[in-house]
Specification:
The protein is mostly beta strands. Helices cover 9% and strands 47% of the residues. The protein has a 21-stranded parallel beta sheet that branches. An 11-stranded parallel beta sheet has the order 5-8-11-14-17-19-21-23-25-27-30. The structure holds 2-acetamido-2-deoxy-beta-D-glucopyranose (NAG) (4 copies).
Length: 398
C-alpha cells in the first residue's frame, strides 16, 4: 500500500469515528431574537444529519433566537444525531398569517435522535384571541409547536414548550422512544393547546414531566401501544385522556397504556377514556391508572362512551369501540364535583374486565362524593370512597 493511500485511509477512519458538531452560529445564526435564524438551523441540521455514521450534533448555544416556519429537521440521517439546545430559547413569530403548514417545527424520519434542552415558544397569545380560530368548527389551520413523526429509538430530554398556537407536541410513529423532564406551559384559558398528543406509536415512556395548559395534558389517539407515563404533574388542563376514539373508520387499537404515580391539579378531568357514539368498530384495552393524586379535579375518573362535544354526532346510537381490561387503582384526593367516578359504557357492547380499587375521593363541596355507572359490572376490590358502582360484585382486598 502506498503511503498516500494509507494516509487517506487513516483520515477517513478518523473522520468516521469523530463526531461532527455543527454550531448554528457558524451557519449564520444571529441570536438577537429578531432575525430569522431558521435557515441557519436547517443548514446545521443537514450537515450533522449527513455527518454519520459516528454520532453528530447540532449545537444551538444559549441565547434567544427567532425561527420562521416551517422548520424541518428531516432524516434519514447517516448516523445518530443530537440537537443540543440547553439554555436556548427559540421563538416562533406571533402572526398566524406567516404559517402555511400544520407545524412550526417538524422533526421526522430519524432513527436515534437525542434532543436535549431548549425552550420552544410558540407565541400563541394572538391566535387564541382570534375569533376565527376559537370557534368549534375550526375554520383556520393552526400549527402544532413541534411535530415528531417517525422519530424512533430516540430520547427527548429537558425540552420546554411554551404558548403554542395549537397542540404543543404531536407524536406520530415514534416507536421505542423516551421523553424525560418535559415542561409544557400555556395558560388555562388558551384554546386547543393540548400538551402532547400521541398516535400510532409502539413503545414510549414519558417520565418526570410537568404540563400546564388549556386542553388535555396528554391524549392518546388510535394505535397507541405500550406507553408508560410516570411522575407527571398535570394542571391546569383537561387531564389525561385515552381518545377520543371512534371518530374515523379503520382506527388501530389502543393497547397497553400505564399511567402511574401522577398528580392532577385543578383539571377538568383526571383520567378518562372517551369514545364517540355511533362509531365504527374499535378497541381500547389494557389500560391502567395507578397511584394518582387528584387535587380539586372536576371529573376525576371517567369512562365516557357517549362523548359528543357540541352535539356534533348522533347520540343514542352506541359506540362500537370495545373497552376492556381497564384498572383504576389507588386514586385519591379531592373531586370538585359530586360525581367522582363515572363509568358510562354501551348497551350491547359493555365494558369488560374493569377493576376499581383503593379509591378515596372526597367531594370538595361536602356531603360525600358518588359514583355513576351504566353497562358495566366492574370488579370492585376492597373499600372505595365513594363506593364504586353500587350493585357491582365486590371482592375482598388481598
Ligand atoms: C418504560 O417503562 C417501563 C415501566 O416503567 C419499563 O419497564 C421499561 O423498561 C421502560 N422502557 C425504556 C426503554 O426505558
Ligand atoms: C384482557 O386480559 C386477559 C387476561 O387478564 C387476557 O386474556 C385478554 O386477552 C385481554 N384482552 C385483550 C383484548 O387484550
Ligand atoms: C381517605 O382520605 C381522607 C382524606 O385524606 C382520609 O382522612 C381518610 O383516612 C382516607 N380513608 C381511607 C379509607 O383511606
Ligand atoms: C403522585 C405520587 O404518587 N407521587 C409519588 C411518586 O413517587 C415518588 C417516589 O416514589 C413519591 O415521592 C411521590 O410522592
Amino acid at each position: 500500500m502506498g503511503k498516500a493511500v494509507c494516509c487517506l485511509l487513516l483520515m477517513v477512519l478518523i473522520a468516521r469515528n469523530h463526531a461532527v458538531v455543527v454550531n448554528i452560529k457558524t451557519k449564520g445564526a444571529i441570536g438577537d431574537g429578531k432575525a430569522n435564524d431558521g435557515p441557519a438551523m436547517e443548514k446545521a441540521w443537514k450537515e450533522a444529519c449527513a455527518g454519520g455514521p459516528a454520532p453528530s450534533s447540532v449545537l444551538i448555544p444559549p441565547g434567544t433566537y427567532m425561527a420562521f416556519p416551517p422548520i424541518l429537521f428531516g432524516g434519514p440521517c447517516k448516523g445518530p444525531v443530537e440537537i443540543k439546545a440547553t439554555g436556548a430559547t427559540i421563538k416562533a413569530p406571533p402572526e398566524l398569517a406567516r404559517f402555511k403548514s400544520d407545524s412550526w417545527i417538524a422533526v421526522q424520519y430519524i432513527n436515534k435522535l437525542t434532543m436535549t434542552g431548549g425552550t420552544f415558544d410558540g407565541q400563541g397569545q394572538e391566535t387564541w384571541k382570534s375569533k376565527k380560530c376559537s370557534d368549534t368548527a375550526q375554520t383556520c389551520q393552526v400549527p402544532v409547536n413541534i411535530r415528531f413523526s417517525y422519530v424512533k429509538n430516540s430520547l427527548l430530554k429537558d425540552i420546554t414548550s411554551l404558548n403554542s398556537k395549537y397542540f404543543h407536541i404531536n407524536i406520530l410513529g415514534c416507536d421505542n422512544t423516551i421523553v424525560d423532564h418535559l415542561t409544557i406551559f400555556a395558560p388555562d384559558k388558551s384554546i386547543n393547546t393540548d400538551g402532547m398528543h400521541i398516535g400510532r406509536t409502539n413503545g414510549l415512556n414519558i417520565t418526570n414531566s410537568k404540563i400546564q395548559t388549556g386542553d388535555d395534558c396528554i391524549s392518546f389517539g388510535d394505535g397507541s401501544k405500550n406507553i408508560h407515563v410516570e411522575r407527571l404533574t398535570c394542571g391546569p388542563g383537561h387531564g389525561v385522556s385515552i381518545g377520543s376514539l371512534g371518530k374515523y373508520a379503520n382506527e388501530q387499537p389502543v393497547d397497553g397504556i400505564w399511567i402511574k404515580n401522577c398528580t392532577m391539579e385543578r383539571t377538568t378531568n383526571g383520567v378518562r377514556i372517551k369514545t364517540w357514539p355511533n362509531s365504527p368498530p374499535g378497541v381500547a384495552t389494557n389500560i391502567h391508572f395507578e397511584d394518582i393524586i387528584m387535587n380539586n379535579v372536576e371529573n376525576p375518573i371517567l369512562i365516557d362512551q357517549q362523548y359528543c362535544p357540541h352535539n356534533t354526532c348522533k347520540k343514542g346510537a352506541p359506540s362500537r369501540v370495545k373497552i376492556s381490561n381497564v384498572s383504576f387503582k389507588k386514586i385519591r384526593g379531592t373531586s370538585a364535583t359530586k360525581v367522582a367516578l363515572r363509568i358510562v359504557c354501551n348497551q350491547g357492547l359493555p365494558c369488560d374486565n374493569i377493576e376499581v380499587s383503593g379509591i378515596n375521593l372526597t367531594y370538595k363541596g361536602g356531603g360525600g362524593a358518588i359514583s355513576e355507572c351504566s353497562h358495566v359490572k366492574p370488579r370492585v376490590v376492597g373499600q372505595n370512597i365513594p363506593p364504586a358502582c353500587p350493585g357491582a360484585p365486590h371482592h375482598r382486598a388481598v
